[in-house]
Structure formats: structure tokens, C-alpha cells
Specification:
177 residues, disordered C terminus, 62% helix, mainly alpha, 4 helices
Length: 177
């Protein structure tokens, strides 16, 4: 992430978590009003969320090592942007699934007769795995930052600052100047 980019807003992540909470509550209330049993998510869901969290973290660590080490290899900017996009998407999806798991879990545990652990256990696992994915996304986004000094090599008018126009940037220079 360059100095001009901002980190993902915690309010956006919170909005996804609240949306997931609402979806989980709505699903629970809808199923209960129709006389259906509790919705128990499959155990493959938290396992998949955890696998995605691990994959995002591994890719971000590899990118960070390439950026900070002086190995002579270039960093593919498109791959870096994809990893950053994956990190941000992980934050949003993690918030959504954590909220969804909590939205399913809270009404189930507030019943007069608490369901068996085989019913509320997967709900708690989804909430936990969503939280793990959210945290992994935050860490991966921080790992995608450009170290200080890399983007500040020159302070001339062609440094991409908002004050410099397209004419001042090397890609748009007119050969007549």
C-alpha cells in the first residue's frame, strides 16, 4: 500500500459485521416462526474460512519479504494489488461471517432449553473463523504497506503528488518541452 492509499475503515468492517448479525438473526427468526429446527452450518464452512485466512497471510508474508529484502527480484505490482484486494475482501467477509455466526448463536443460547453442543458448536466455530479471517485480513493489509523510504526516493514535481499534474509525470511528458 502506498502512502496515498488509506487502510480499510473499521466502520466499513463493522457495517459488514452488523449486516451479518442481522442476516443470522433473520434466518433464525424465520426458521423458528415456521417451526423448523435450528440452522446448523456445516463444519466445512469454518474450515474453509480458516484456510482462506491462512492463504491470505502466507501471500502477504511472501510479498512483504520480497519488498523488504534486497534480493534483486522485482515485485509484481499486479500481484501486490491482488493480495491487497484479497486482504480487504478478507476483512469484509470475516466481519460478515463473524456477525452471521453470532447472529445464529445468541438466539440459540438464549432459549429456555439450551440446544446440544452439536447444534451451537458449529455456530461458534463460524463466528470464531470469521473473526480469524477478519484479523488475518487486517494483518495482511498492514503487511502490504510500502516500507518508509521506498516511495520517497525523489521529491520533485514528478513524484505523483496531487500538486503535480499529468504533464509533470514522466509518462505524460511532451517531447517538445
Amino acid at each position: 500500500m502506498t502512502s496515498g492509499q488509506r487502510a480499510t475503515s473499521p466502520l466499513a468492517t463493522l457495517a459488514f459485521a452488523v449486516s451479518g448479525l442481522g442476516i443470522g438473526l433473520l434466518l433464525h427468526v424465520t426458521r423458528a416462526s415456521r417451526g423448523f429446527a435450528l440452522f446448523v452450518p456445516p463444519l466445512s464452512l469454518p474450515l474453509t474460512l480458516t484456510a482462506v485466512a491462512i492463504a491470505v497471510l502466507v501471500m502477504a508474508v511472501i510479498l512483504r519479504r520480497r519488498v523488504t529484502r534486497d534480493t534483486g527480484g522485482n515485485v509484481d505490482p499486479f500481484a501486490a494489488v491482488r493480495i491487497l484486494a484479497g486482504a480487504r475482501a478478507s476483512q469484509f467477509a470475516g466481519g460478515l461471517f463473524a456477525g452471521f455466526g453470532v447472529g445464529l448463536l445468541v438466539p440459540a443460547l438464549l432459549r429456555t432449553v439450551v440446544p446440544a453442543a452439536s447444534a451451537w458448536g458449529p455456530m461458534a466455530c463460524v463466528a470464531g473463523a470469521g473473526l480469524v479471517l477478519l484479523i488475518a485480513g487486517v494483518i495482511a493489509e498492514r503487511l502490504c504497506r510500502v516500507p518508509p523510504g521506498d516511495g520517497d526516493a525523489h521529491d520533485g514535481p514528478g513524484d505523483g503528488s496531487p500538486e503535480s499534474g499529468p504533464v509533470d509525470q514522466p509518462a505524460f511528458r511532451d517531447s517538445a518541452r
